[in-house]
Amino acid sequence: MRIGELAAKAGVSVRALRYYEEQGLLVAERSPSGQRHYPDSGVDQVLLIQQLYAAGLPSRSIRAVLPCVETGEATPELLEWFTAERDRIDRQMRDLASARDRLDSLIVGATAVWRSGRPCPAR
After folding, report:
1. d(C-alpha 82, C-alpha 101), whole Å
2. What is the pLDDT of residues 14-28, one digit of tens each?
3. Contacts of 96 (CB under 8 A, 6+ apart)
4. Containing structural domain, residue 54
5. Looking at 57, 73, 89, which one is the last position of a domain?
6. pLDDT category, 115, cuts 50, 70, 90?
7. Which residue range or ranges hold the HTH merR-type domain (predicted)?
8. Would you state the pLDDT for residue 122?
């Protein structure tokens, strides 16, 4: 599929795909006229790249992960690194859940004050 079709199917911009290619995260075949062509698996690969970026991994780390996704194989060092990254993400999730819970408490308290008719203090 061509770059525009991959962008539409993956829900990303063409610019993002070009960036992923520059970073060595995505590989395109080139037609004789120079147009990029991606395999159907490109959609899943782009979605994985986006997930890993959203989890805070830099492109160099994502580049190390992608071959393991394709082959299912990893060195002991990579497995150790994967575990450390997973643990970091778990900590982030706990921290975000804690922040969400505190916001929920603030919302409940502020809603009770608002419903009671008492004025909120000035900011």
Report:
1. 28
2. 999 999 999 999 999
3. none
4. 1-73
5. 73
6. confident
7. 1-68
8. 58
Q: Are 48 and 24 in contact (CB under 8 A)?
A: no
The CATH number of the domain holding residue 60 is 1.10.1660.10
Chain centre distance of CA 35: 27
Give the tokens for residue 91. 């900590």
Q: Which residues pair with 30 in a beta bridge?
A: 36
Instruction: Give me the pLDDT at residue 29, please.
Output: 93
3-state DSSP assignment of residue 33: coil
Beta bridge partners of 26: none
Q: Which residues pair with 37 in a beta bridge?
A: 2, 29
Asked if residues 37 and 1 have their Cβ atoms less than 8 Å apart, the reply is yes
Domain count, the chain: 2
Residues 59-111: tens digit of each pLDDT: 998 998 898 888 888 889 989 998 999 999 999 999 999 999 999 999 998 88
Q: How many C-beta neighbours within 10 Å does residue 5 have?
A: 13
